[in-house]
Amino acid sequence: MKLGRLGAWYAADKHASPAAMAAFVKTVEALGYDTLWYPESRGYESFSFAAFMLGHTKTLKLGSSIASIYARDAFTSRRGMVSLNQLYNDRFILGLGVSHTPMVEGVRGHTYEKPIPAMRKYLNGITKDQPEAKDWPIALAALRPLMLKLSAEMTQGALPYNTTAHHTAEAKKILGPDKWLAIEQKVTIETDPAKARALGREELSRYMVLDNYRNAWLEMGFTEADLSDGGSDSFIDQMVLWGTADQVKTKLRAHFDAGATHVAIQPVHPIGDTASRDAILKALADT
User: Fold this and answer.
1) Cross-strand bridge partners of residue 266
2) Which range marks the domain in which residue 275 is found?
3) How many domains does the chain have?
4) Paired sense of beta strands 262-267 and 6-9, if any
5) pLDDT band at residue 99, thresholds of 50, 70 and 90?
6) What would the pLDDT profile of 239-264 be if each residue is shown by its tens digit?
7) 50 near 92, Cβ under 8 Å?
8) pLDDT in tens, 100-150
9) Residue 277 falls inside a structural domain
10) Domain presence at residue 204
C-alpha cells in the first residue's frame, strides 16, 4: 500500500450521530485527502468504526491511530486487518499503540506492561508464520527512539502524535528513507491568539495528564513550566498551529521539510461547530 501526502485525523466521539459520521467521511474523501485516521481511546470500537467508514467511501483509506494492543489479541488484530482489506479493496491501515496506563488498567482492567517488549511480542503474534506480513499496512504510534526503531524494524513505519517539526526530523533519522512517517498535527484557522490558544488548551487538556505524552514532550525540549497551568503559549503554539490558512500551510510544510511522508491534519474547533471543522479541512486540502 502506498500512503499519500495528506490525511485527516478526527475522533469518532466528536460526531453527533452515525449519519454525521457518514457525511464527514464523504466530505474528507471529496476534498481529496488520502487517509482518514481515528483513535480508539473513546467512542466506537476500532474495527467496527473502520468498516462503517469504509462502507461509505470508495477510495479513501481508513487508518486506526491507534488501535490498542490491549483491546484484542494479536490473532484478532491480524484477522481484522486482513478482513477489512479483503472486503474493502485494500483501504485499511492498522495503526497500533500501547495506549496509556489509565486506559489499560483503569478502563480495561489489564496490566500495563513495558511498552517495547509488549509491542514486540504483539507484532510477533500478528506476523507469526505469515510470509506476506512484511507487506501488510501496519504502523506504530511512536514518539520516543526505541519505539521508532521498532516501527522501522517490524512495520511500515510510525504514526507520531502531538509532536513538532524538530521531532519529525529526529524521527526520520531513526526510521530511514523508506518507511512511513505519518505525522498528526492539530490546526485551527484562527488569527486571534487568545482564541486560538484557548481552543488549543481545551483540545490538549486530555493529553497533558498522561505520562507517556509528558515524558515525550520533556524529551523534545519542553520544560515542566511549559506543561503547567494548561501549557505555555510557546507549547500551545507548537502543538496547535493557528493563523490564516496560508500561515498554517507554511507551518505544516515544516513537517514535510523535516522528512514527513504524510501529514494528517486534525481540525481544532469549538465543540459542535462542524462548519468550522469542514472549512479548515477545505482550506488546507492543497497543502
Assistant:
1) 186
2) 6-188+244-284
3) 1
4) parallel
5) confident
6) 999 999 999 999 999 999 999 999 99
7) yes
8) 777 888 878 888 889 999 999 999 999 988 989 999 999 999 999 999 999
9) yes
10) no
Which of 2, 1, 8 lies closest to 263, judged by CA?
8
HEC letters along the chain: CCCCCEEEECCHHHCCCHHHHHHHHHHHHHCCCCEEEECCCCCCCHHHHHHHHHHCCCCCEEEECCEECCCCCHHHHHHHHHHHHHHCCCCEEEEEECCCHHHHHHHCCCCCCCHHHHHHHHHHHHHCCCHHHHHCCEEECCCCHHHHHHHHHHCCEECCCCCCHHHHHHHHHHHCCCCEEEEEEEEECCCCHHHHHHHHHHHHCCCCCCHHHHHHHHHCCCCCCCCCCCCCHHHHHHHEEECCHHHHHHHHHHHHHCCCCEEEEEECCCCCCHHHHHHHHHHHCCC
Average pLDDT over residues 58-87: 97
Encode pLDDT of 21-50 as tens digits: 999 999 999 999 999 999 987 778 999 999
Could you tell me which of 262, 235, 243, 141 has the C-alpha nearest to residue 187?
243
In 3D space, the residue among 170, 215, 150, 186 whose CA is nearest the CA of residue 39 turns out to be: 186
CATH number at residue 120: 3.20.20.30
